[in-house]
Amino acid sequence: MTDTVTQRTRREAETISRVVVRFAGDSGDGMQLTGDRFTSASAIFGNDLMTFPDYPAEIRAPAGTVNGVSSFQVHISDHDITTPGDAPSVLVAMNAAALKADLNRLEPHGLLIVNSDSFEARDLEKAGYTSNPLEDGSLDGYRLVQIPMTSLTQGAAEPLGVKPRDAERSKNFFALGLISWLYSRPTDPTLEWIDKRFKDLVKESNRAAFLAGYNFAETTELFEHPYQVAPAHMPPGEYTNISGNVALAWGIVAAGQLAKLPVFLGSYPITPASDILHELSKHKHFGVRTLQAEDEIAAAGMALGAAFAGHLGVTTTSGPGVALKSETISLAVSLELPLLVVDIQRGGPSTGLPTKTEAADLNIAMFGRHGEAPLPIVAASSPADCFQAVIEAARIALKYRTPVIFLSDGYIANGAEPWKLPDLDSLPDISVPFQTEFNHQAADGTMEYWPYLRDPETLARPWAIPGTPGLMHRIGGIEKQDGTGNISYAPDNHEKMVHLRADKVRAIQADIPPVEVRGDQDADLCILGWGSTWAAIDAAVQQAGREGRPVAWVHLTHLNPLPADLGDVLRRFRTVLVPELNMGQLCRIVRAEYLIDAVSISKVQGLPFSANELLAKIREHHS
Questions:
Q1: How far apart, in whole angstroms, are the C-alpha atoms of residue 201 and residue 489?
Q2: CA–CA dist 389, 459 (Å, integer)
Q3: Looking at the structure, do residues 333 and 219 belong to the same domain, yes or no?
C-alpha cells in the first residue's frame, strides 16, 4: 500500500448539493474524533456545515451495548444551512450496538456502511439482537455495504509491527479514510493532523488505517463512484470552524479586552460547560485568570469577589451548578456588582441527562433566587452566535452593575459551524469607569463617597474597587440604605431598594433593539423562539415559504427584560407558536406578560427539534 493518496480517482465524482453523515460506534471507538476530523476537512474544503455530537453520559459504558453508543452527525452542503440534518443519508455503524441504536435515524434507502467484523454472536447478544440483521433481511430497505474494517485495519498495521489488539483501535481512521474518499474530502489536512497529534507506532497505525480506508474505497467495487459537495458561496472573509463553547470562551476573552478589564473565571467542572474552562485557561496572555474551585459555591464566590476587585467576573456551569450558586447570585443582586453566570443547559432535573441537550433552565434563571432578585437573561441561538451574545451579556452586566445569566445548551455548546472572524474595529467599546472621586456633598460641606448613589439613566451604582483612597464602603448581603449603603432595616427603605433593583433591570429595555420579524410579515402565524431552536425554526420557515405557507418568525436574544415592543408585535398575529426544549417556560411568561393565547410546542427527549417536526406544526396550522 502506498503512503500517499491521489485526489483524482478513476471514477468520476457525482456532484450533490448536500449530505448528512452519522458515525456511530462504541464509546471507545473514537467516533467524536472521527466526526471532528471529517468536519475539519469539510471546513477546509469550504463547505457550509453543522454538527451534532451525541454521546453517552458514562465515562465508559459497557462495551458493545446500546447504552454505550457514541455518535457524531455532520451535515455538509454547498449552500447555507442551519441544522445538522433531520435524518442522516449515510450511517457508518462500527458494531451491532451502533446499528441497533441509530438505524431508526437513517433516511429510507439511505447508505448503511457496517463493520461486518463486529457482528459475531457475542456482539449481537450484547446489542440485544436475536438474529443477525446483516443476514435476516431486516436491512433490505437500505443500501447496505458490509466491510470488515477491523481485520482490514489490522492487516494494514501488521507490517508496522503493531499488535492486532492495538491496531484495532485505529479502525475509526479506516472509516474516516473510506468516507473521505466517498465524499471527495481533502486528505492532506487529516494526515498532517495525525502526524502532529500522535507519536511512534500509534501515529503510524492511524496513518496506515486512514490510507487503507481511502484506498479500499477507491479500488473496491462496493461503491459505483465518489460524490462531490462543492464549496458553499459564503460572504468573503476569513473563516474558522468553531464550536459553541469555544466561541463563548473567545467571546469572554474579547469582552475583557473591550471592557479594558482583566477576566477572572471561577469554575467547577460540569458537563457540558467544562470546555469553556479548558479553553479560557489557554489565554493568560489576554489577562485571563482561571481557577478550578473545589465546588460550585466556591467558584461563584470567587467570581463575585473578583468583580468586587474590578475584574470581569465569570462563572460557568450547568443547571445543577446554577442551583448551588443561587445564594451567591442573590448576593450579587444585592451588592449590585457585575457578574457573568454562564449556564450551558442539559437534561434535568438533578443529574438527569448530563450529555443530552435541553433548555429547561429558563425558570431557574428567571426565578431561582430567594426574595425579589430580578436579573437580566441573555441567550445564544447558535454556536457562532455565542461570541456576540456573551459580549452583549458582559456589556449589560458592566453598564448596569448587575449579575447576568447567559444561557446556552448542550446542542449549541458541542455543535460546530463555520464562523467568519469579526472585524475587531466593529466590536463595541463596553468599558465603564471606576469611581475614583468623592461623589456626595455632606451637610457640613465636606465631600464623601456614597456607594449607592445611582446614575439617573441606568440606575447603576458607582463601582469603586478596593484600595481607592477615601472610597471605603460596606459590602454584604444585608439590606442597605439607598445612597449611603449603610445597613438599614427600615421597611420603606427595603421596599424602595426592591423597586430600584427591579427598575434597573427594566431600564435595560432601552438598550434592547426593536423586535426583528423574519419571514412573511403579513402571515397570520408567528413562531416565537429562543436559544437553539433557531436552527430548526430557520429551516422549517424556509421550507414552509417554498411550499407557499406564510410564516413569520421572531427569535429572542434578551429573555429578561423582554424587548419593549414584543407584546405589540405578537398581538399582530392570530396564532403564536412557541417551540421549546422544555415544558413551555417562555410560553407561560409570554401568556402572563402579554395576555395572548400563545401555544407551546414542547420537546424534552434530550434531542434538539428537527426541522420536519416544526414544519409539521406549520402545515397543521395551514391545513
A1: 71
A2: 23
A3: no
Confidence band for 10, pLDDT divided at 50, 70 and 90: low
Q: How many CA atoms lie within 13 A of 334 on its CB side?
A: 23
225 plus 249 within the same structural domain: no
- Indicate the number of domains in the chain: 4
Residues 108-130: what's their mean pLDDT? 97
Residue with grid cell 473563516, as numbered in its chain: 239
By CB atoms closer than 10 A (0-12, 13-18, 19+), residue 466 is: exposed
- Residue 269 Cα to chain centre, angstroms: 16
Q: Are residues 259 and 306 in the same domain?
A: yes
Radius of gyration, CA atoms only, the chain: 27
Domain residues for the domain of 273 are: 240-426
- Please report how many Cα atoms fall inside a 13 Å half-sphere around the Cα of residue 179, on the Cβ side: 33
142-143-148-149 Cα dihedral, nearest 10 degrees: -90
Q: Both 63 and 117 in a single domain?
A: yes
Average per-residue pLDDT for the chain: 95
The 8-class DSSP code of residue 384 comes to T
- Compute φ and ψ for 90, nearest 5 degrees: -135, 130
User: How many whole angstroms separate alpha carbon 83 and alpha carbon 535?
Assistant: 5
For residue 109, is it within any domain? yes
What grid cell was written down for 458? 441606568
pLDDT for position 474: 84
- For residues 262 and 361, state if they share a domain: yes
Same-domain check for residues 136 and 264: no
Distance CA 50, CA 54 (A): 13
Residue with cell 471606576: 434
Distance, in Å, from the CA atom of 106 to the CA atom of 145, rounded to the nearest integer, reads 14
Domain contains 235: no
Alpha-carbon distance 587 to 604, whole Å?
15
- Judge contact between 548 and 622, C-beta under 8 A: no
Backbone angles phi, psi at 621, to 5 degrees: -65, -35
The three cell numbers of residue 487 are: 445597613
pTM over 0.90: yes
CATH number at residue 25: 3.40.920.10
Q: Does residue 393 form part of some domain?
A: yes
Domain boundary among 379, 408, 426: 426
Domain shared by 416 and 442, yes or no:
no
| Cα(402)–Cα(87) distance, integer angstroms | 43
Which residue(s) pair with 315 in the sheet?
266, 341
Cis peptide before 349 (omega within 30 of 0): yes
Residue type at position 183: Y
Measured distance CA(382)–CA(619) in Å, rounded? 25
β-pairing, 518-519 vs 339-345, is unpaired
State which of 393, 408, 426 marks the end of a domain: 426
pLDDT in tens, 398-434: 999 999 999 999 999 999 999 999 999 999 999 999 9
- Distance in angstroms (rounded) separating the CA atoms of residues 482 and 451: 9
**209 and 95 part of one domain:** yes
Whether residue 337 is predicted with pLDDT greater than 80 in this model: the reply is: yes
Q: Give the number of other Cβ atoms within 10 Å of residue 130's Cβ.
A: 7
**CATH number for 569:** 3.40.50.920
277 domain-assigned = yes
